[in-house]
Amino acid sequence: MCLKNTCRKPSKTTSNRQTGKIKVHHMWLAVDPGLAIQPTNVLAQLEGAAVFGLSVALLEELTIQNGAPVQSYFHDYQVLRMSEMPEIHTKLVQSDAAPTGMGEIGVLPVAPAIANAIFQLTGKRLRSLPMSPQRVKSALT
User: Fold this and answer.
1) For 10-44, what is each residue's pLDDT tens digit?
2) Which residues contact 126 (CB under 8 A, 6 or more apart)?
3) Kindly report the CA angle at 53 between 48 and 59, in degrees rounded to 5?
4) Angle ∠(117,120,123) on CA atoms, nearest 5
5) DSSP 8-state assignment for residue 129
6) What is the CA angle 13-83-17, rounded to 5?
């Protein structure tokens, strides 16, 4: 089954050149899932996917040692906290197309949107996830 929905995601992002920390201030998401049977749920799914995508793009990293994960719980596996969340703006583009699945389509464009924003700020491309402060500082030197 091919899902023919479309999602666009620009972001307003800054980076501290000395610490390498990326801060996403705003994220805008628009999706065209075809006919939205439950529009409120579609927007909630889109926002939740953006939260997950932000965490993956900026923090989440699983370290394997001797064939097993080093991280065991949230005290040593970082995820984005509510205090670090940007303002997320969602928009549903209604069309006459047949309904499609939403799934996690909002996750996919997050990292490229942030990477493009950092490229616009610095002229440097980030090509690995997560976009950790260490990777940002390394790319800027």
Assistant:
1) 678 888 889 999 999 999 988 888 888 899 999 99
2) 115, 118, 119, 135, 136, 139
3) 125
4) 125
5) S
6) 35
